[in-house]
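Data card: per-record layout.
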Amino acid sequence: MSRQDSSSFSRCLSGGQLLELDACTQCGECLKYCPVQEVTGDRSVSPPEKIRNFKDFIKKTGVLRQWLFGKGRIDEKLLQDFTKAVFECTTCGACGEACTVGIHTQRLWPMLRREMVKRGLGPIDQQKEAPEAVSRTGNPYDRPAGDRFSWRPPEVKVAQRANLGYYAGCTGAYDATPMVRGDVQALSRVGEPFTMLPAEEEVCCGFPLFITGQFELLEGLVKKLVEAYAKKGVKTLICSCPCCVNMISRDWPSFYGRRLPFGIMHISQYIDRSFAEGRLSVNRTLDERLIYHDPCYLSRGVGITEEPRRVLERIPGAQLLEFERNRVNSRCCGAGGAARKVFRDNALAIFRLAINEACEKKADRLVLGCPACYSIAGAALEGHDSRGKNGGQLGIVDVMELLAEVF
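The structure for this 407-residue chain is written out next.
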């Protein structure tokens, strides 16, 4: 499709999303919460400006306008600038949470990206490599499939078949291994048998492709994974990556074509329930001040905020602090939406805002619950003043990684 194709830009949107676009009042309330705005100050990439431009594209390619005035052309530079703006977004959804008219931006931005992909304008730079990498190795990092579970502790037993399944996800398996190691250690501690797919079969959940508007492989990936877990007798699939949980719960059914044969549960929900049922206990005391960061796709995406906190509160001696912006109003870490691959400086600057606040509150450790956040944490800390309580350096840890320390 040509970028100047005369077909309407509205094709990628549902009727509800078209109404949402029309509802935007350009009030600017969302600018107070947009992480990209916070570190760049660039209004051209702001949520209202993206909406204003896309509405203009729709008007210029609308059927009535073409019938009255002929095919409208859109300035090439405007198309390119819009593409950059929509792909620079972290898709965190903070703008939608603050929106005075309730625009669900976390679901809107991927659809706008999809339209730009169809017109040959997106995605940008390294984001384009994901489909080929996933086709070749099963993951967007193009890492060997055989290395996917190299982090798994040998003492953790994985059943061939079980009602409970565990999906590690790509970023956890390759870039945030302490997180997924903590996951399986926690699952093992509960004692309920759980199964996993072989390393070569646990392919990408599809979120990196979905979020960059590259949908071609999604149906095949989803069907392959769903059928593989069904063959293993899985009734509940556990995952810790917020983006994977969001993708599986919200989008897998549509790409699979019907209801999934199993339920999906975030690991914090399962571990929280295991504590409540008396199947899990903590043996060690931890005299630390912890500050928990709500991941965007866990809090705003699927509404899970209290379970990770209850898990952390189970650790004797630990004091749980809060960011000024928390739960569904939390600040993005900067690493989401595949933006960190191209706009790395933005991601580092955004994450450092969280580091600064954690240090101001004299936290010993910043507790994360997202592999994308975890994967950029080290780079954000490097060369950045991160002295917290008693002048010590701020530590970074995942919820389950920390829990595994105190069993």
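Known properties of this structure: The first helix runs from residue 15 to 23. The chain has three domains: 9-122, 134-274, 282-405.

See the next section for split statistics.
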